[in-house]
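Researcher: I've been going back and forth with a colleague about how DUF2187 domain-containing protein might be arranged in three dimensions. Neither of us has a model we trust, so I'd like an independent prediction. The organism is Vagococcus bubulae, in case that matters for your notes. Sequence below.
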Amino acid sequence: MSKTLVSIGSIIEYPTVHQEKVVGRVEQILKNTIIIRDKFKNTHLVLIKTVEKSGVSVDEETYIYKNRYSKN
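Model: Here is an independent structure prediction for DUF2187 domain-containing protein. You can compare it with whatever you and your colleague have in mind.
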C-alpha cells in the first residue's frame, strides 16, 4: 500500500539522476522519469523507481503534456 500518489502538479523532494536533492513541482511524467521544476525555474529529472522505492506511487495514467497557452 503506497503512502501517496505523485501526479502532475505535485510538489516533491527527491534526489535527481545526478544525486542532487531538489524540491520542485512535477511538470511531466514520462515512461521512466519525472520532470520537475524548482523555484528557480530549472528542470530536473527524477527516476520513477527512486520515488517508488520510498513507497510512493506515480500516476501512470497522466502522460499527457499540458499546454499552458491558449489559442485565443
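Researcher: What would you highlight for our discussion?
Model: I'd start with this: The helical segments are 48-53. After that, consider the following. The domain at 5-58 is CATH 2.30.30 (SH3 type barrels.).
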